[in-house]
Amino acid sequence: MNPSGPTVGATFQAPICPGVDSEQLARLGYRQELRRDLGPFASFAAGFSFVSVLTTVFEMFPVGYAFGGPAFFWTWPLVFVGQFCVALCFAELAAHIPVAGAIYQWSSRLSVRDVGWIAGWLTLIGYIVSVSAIAIAMQSILPSLWSGFQVIGANPDVTTLTGAENAVILGTATILASTLISCAGVRISAFVTVAGVYAEIVGLCLLVATLFLHAQRGFAVTLDTTHMAPGISGSAAFLASMLMAVYVMYGFDSAAELSEETHNPARTAPRAIVRCLLLSFVAGGLVILGTLMAAPSLSSGELTTIGVPYVINAMTSGVTGHLLLATVAVSVFSATIAIQTSASRVLFSMARDGVIPACSALARISQRTGTPVAATVFVGVLSAAFLGVNYGDSSLFGAITSSAVGVTYFAYLLVTVPLLLRRWQWLKSPGPSPFGFETKGRIRRATVNLCAVVCGALFLLNTLWPRKEVFDPGGERPYMVAFPAAFLTIALASGFIVRKFQKTKSAS
């Protein structure tokens, strides 16, 4: 245990060999408490389930198409390039600091403890809200599979009162089941996550094959700019459509959050991070392209309201459609477990360092299951409680979940910026860097790091930009255009308050 938190500027160790994971962890200041039960595929599955392109592309396609039309396809590779640079930086750090609570740990060791603490706090907020956002997606799937899942009323639309109520019920049930499985042990939760990944891959293959077999137009559809949102410039519409990809491509660091539960994490976690994002990019890009090529009509308003399901229903039988929806439901549940597990490990890591309230309880590991039960339950309770916002106002719930993505991107910058500053010091140093890289390697990695910082900052700015068309399309709530920036400000302010409170409590 390291009650004072991670050591600032700690020397980075070279990647370790299998069999000495606990010794490496001890050199980083911690003893082995979590159980190392995860292999390479389970580590990959954690990140792939978090991104969950089958679920998120289904959900976010209308956002991209509504603003950019078919041309919004090009935002997908643009965002990928930036996020892949971030993933490479994270993979590099995961190889040398294989510790739970990755974002918090990396930022703390690269900069100062207060910056690292804020990075952990923002990551925790972003992940908790993400648990709610992914769990409530069950309302868009389960009632379509079987009417019995519509427990309240008959209209499953989340914008209606009964739809919102039922969404809270299904979301709460999903989070409850996820919490129970996560508390049962990382091996059990990993088994469910891996099963979900297999189901998602099968669903993606089936979906992509179906879309391309029913293609009505060629790749040139991606150059069509005639269906961009009217009333705004083409560049503004393109940037707004980029939010779809920005909202999807994050969470690939989940493999690093499970480093203390993975065999040979210095080798496994970096590969899992890179492979997760690569596969997500390819799969998501094929789904987007296939949907554009197979859509019955590019002028249909249902592409901007329903998206991918509209195209599926137009070209498949009920059996095929239900099979695809079933795989999406499994993916949603798998993603809920993956995100909740990542959030609980961030909370556990901060609690273990004694830097948050109730740290002694939240850092406790169950001797029977080898998991931080209190931290897992705490994340589940907060996520379920947050679902109540959807019952009161589904548009507000959507605004908060979108804003939480911006909070997470800010946390990522609190890792990539300090890392870039460190690299600048290493480039000027005549001796070998703490990472042990040669000069050529330093320059290449610094270039990738610079790209990660610039792209991350631009993506964050794009997320926070006050747009009436995005946050107040009806013109009824003009104050909502500032909501993402306000949410980030509140998250930062609350973090400073909690941090100061904990410091005062520790000093007394």
UniProtKB/TrEMBL annotation:
The UniProt record lists the keyword DNA-binding: no
Name of the featured protein: Amino acid permease
Membrane topology: Multi-pass membrane protein
Chain segments annotated as transmembrane: 38-58, 78-103, 115-138, 158-181, 188-212, 232-252, 272-295, 369-389, 395-421, 446-465, 477-498
Cellular localisation: Membrane
Record keywords, A-Z: Membrane, Transmembrane, Transmembrane helix, Transport
Entry-linked InterPro entries: AA/rel_permease1
Native species: Nguyenibacter vanlangensis
A Pfam family per the record: AA_permease_2
